[in-house]
């Protein structure tokens, strides 16, 4: 499990990805309102699998469900993401749900390297790379690299990615 700060940071990265995908779908709306909804939905979704486990209706605020079970189920988040994406043109608020689901998926990806793993399909699966709270910088950097790549593809037509590939192929230093 990544730390709470890492989930917040990767939630912002998921927000950038969601906003770019909403814009790419051509459903960003006036002044990018729907892209903004996707951004804010993903920020909330980045920590959602953890706070959805808390029984907010009780005084004790204990977990109503075991940690990393139903709220961390990969198929549920992926299905929500797909449904919301396909609903973007029909429902103005679907962008918020799409962002929320993207944030939830990013949360699962951040938890995946932990030995406890996450239940993607059936049972838990783990990459078994490091323990909770360790290597958060790697998780955050990977999320932001993915966000930069998606944003570059959508808003800059991949010009930065192509430039970097050309530099690497040429074997010369970046100047």
Describe this structure in words.
By secondary structure, this protein is mainly α. It has one domain (4-170). 58% of the residues lie in helices and 0% in strands. It is built from 7 helices and no strands. It has helices spanning 4-24, 33-45, 48-51, 74-86, 94-111, 136-155, 159-170. Helix 1 crosses helix 5. The mean pLDDT is 82.
Rg over CA atoms: 17 Å
* Count of DSSP strands: 0
Low-confidence stretches: none
Q: Tell me about the biggest sheet?
A: none
List keywords for this structure.
single chain; 175 residues; mainly alpha
Give the SSE map.
Elements: H1 4-24, H2 33-45, H3 48-51, H4 74-86, H5 94-111, H6 136-155, H7 159-170
Helix pairs in contact: 1-2, 1-5, 1-6, 2-5, 4-5
Summarize the structure.
The protein has 175 residues and is an all-alpha fold. Helices cover 58% and strands 0% of the residues.
């Amino acid at each position: 499990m990544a730390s709470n700060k890492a989930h917040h940071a990767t939630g912002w990265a998921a927000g950038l990805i969601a906003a770019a995908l909403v814009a790419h779908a051509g459903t960003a709306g006036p002044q990018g309102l729907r892209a903004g909804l996707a951004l804010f939905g993903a920020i909330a979704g980045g920590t959602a699998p953890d706070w959805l486990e808390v029984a907010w209706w009780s005084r004790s605020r204990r977990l109503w469900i075991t940690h990393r079970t139903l709220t961390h189920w990969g198929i549920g988040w992926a299905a929500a993401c797909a449904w919301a994406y396909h609903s973007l043109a029909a429902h103005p608020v679907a962008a918020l749900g799409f962002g929320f689901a993207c944030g939830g998926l990013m949360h699962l990806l951040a938890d995946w390297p932990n030995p406890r793993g996450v239940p993607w399909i059936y049972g838990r699966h783990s990459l078994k790379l490091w323990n909770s709270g360790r290597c958060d910088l790697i998780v955050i950097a990977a999320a932001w690299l993915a966000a930069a790549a998606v944003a570059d593809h959508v808003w800059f037509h991949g010009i930065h990615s192509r430039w970097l590939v050309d530099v690497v192929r040429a074997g010369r230093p970046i100047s």
